[in-house]
Structure formats: C-alpha cells, structure tokens
C-alpha cells in the first residue's frame, strides 16, 4: 500500500470516502484504519512507529474536534503526514483546523482545507508525492488536471 488512510472515528468516513475515491481514480493504493488518538493511544503509537516498515509512503489522517490524530502520527514517524480537518458541528471545523495546523517545530503536518475540499486535496497532495517516483500516478495526475482545465473552459458556455 502506498497510503495509510487513517481516521479518528467511523463518523469521519463520509468525508474520508472522498479521499479514498480520488485515490482510486489516481491509481494510488491505500488501506484504511480507524485509530482514535484519545481512545487508542497505544495503537496509534504502534501504527505510527511501524508505518515506514509497512512500506507506506504517505499517511493521510483525518480528525475532527481536538484532532490530535495527525500530529500524534507525525510524532511517531518520519513519513509525510497530511492532516484533514473534519468539519464539526460545534465550531464548523475551525477547532479541527487549528488542532492540526498548529504543530511545534520539528513535527510537521501538511494541513489541507476543512471538510470535503480538504479531503480531496489530501488525496491530490499524496498523489503528487507518490508521483515523484511512480510514473502511472503521475500520468493520472496530469489527466486529472487536464480534465479540470477542460471543464473550466467549457463552463464559459454556461454564460451565454
């Protein structure tokens, strides 16, 4: 597997499914896990410490609320970690964003937008990292971008 797709709770799956769907479209292999930073701290530490040996290239970690999952995974591995702030009811995901983006020096977490846009951008960012050494994924990324451009150009017709 190229990507470990980790969420703090099964309730995060509707957003994370968008990440998974886009990874599939880009030919990026992944597996998925629920690992709660607060309810499963030993499992989280073990997963982070073994991720490189398990041959992952990137970890995408999605969490809401206190959102310690991405940072704690990053603290236990040298693999790139991409944090996806899940949109919450209490503070609309701002709590998640701040928990993920405010990492101390030495433990970076690449942080994407709150919610669905972030879920998709996490897949794209992971694919860009993997495309550095995987020509098939690079080809899929180029095709994805070309399609976006063509759709944007075609949208001009809607102005008529």
UniProtKB/TrEMBL annotation:
Keyword Flavoprotein: no
Residues annotated to bind substrate: 9, 12, 39
Gene Ontology MF: a single term: 5-(carboxyamino)imidazole ribonucleotide mutase activity
Catalytic class of the enzyme: isomerase
Enzyme Commission designation: 5.4.99.18
Taxonomy, superkingdom: Bacteria
InterPro entries assigned to the protein according to its UniProt record, in alphabetical order: PurE_ClassI, PurE_dom, PurE_prokaryotes
Pathway as given in its UniProt record: Purine metabolism; IMP biosynthesis via de novo pathway; 5-amino-1-(5-phospho-D-ribosyl)imidazole-4-carboxylate from 5-amino-1-(5-phospho-D-ribosyl)imidazole (N5-CAIR route): step 2/2
Function: Catalyzes the conversion of N5-carboxyaminoimidazole ribonucleotide (N5-CAIR) to 4-carboxy-5-aminoimidazole ribonucleotide (CAIR).
Family according to the record: Belongs to the AIR carboxylase family. Class I subfamily.
Protein name: N5-carboxyaminoimidazole ribonucleotide mutase
Gene: purE
């Amino acid at each position: 597997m190229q990507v470990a797709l980790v969420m703090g709770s099964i309730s995060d799956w509707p957003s994370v499914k968008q990440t998974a769907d886009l990874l599939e479209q880009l030919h990026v292999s992944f597996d998925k896990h629920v690992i709660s930073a607060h309810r499963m701290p030993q499992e989280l530490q073990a997963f982070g410490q073994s991720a490189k040996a398990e041959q992952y290239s990137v970890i995408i970690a999605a969490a809401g609320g206190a959102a310690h999952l991405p940072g704690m995974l990053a603290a236990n591995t040298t693999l790139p970690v991409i944090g996806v702030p899940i949109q919450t009811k209490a503070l609309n995901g701002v709590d998640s964003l701040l928990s993920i983006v405010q990492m101390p020096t030495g433990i970076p977490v690449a942080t994407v937008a709150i919610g669905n846009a972030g879920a998709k951008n996490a897949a794209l960012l992971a694919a860009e990292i993997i495309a550095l050494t995987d020509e098939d994924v690079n080809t899929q990324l180029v095709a994805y971008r070309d399609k976006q451009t063509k759709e944007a150009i075609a949208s001009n017709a809607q102005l008529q």
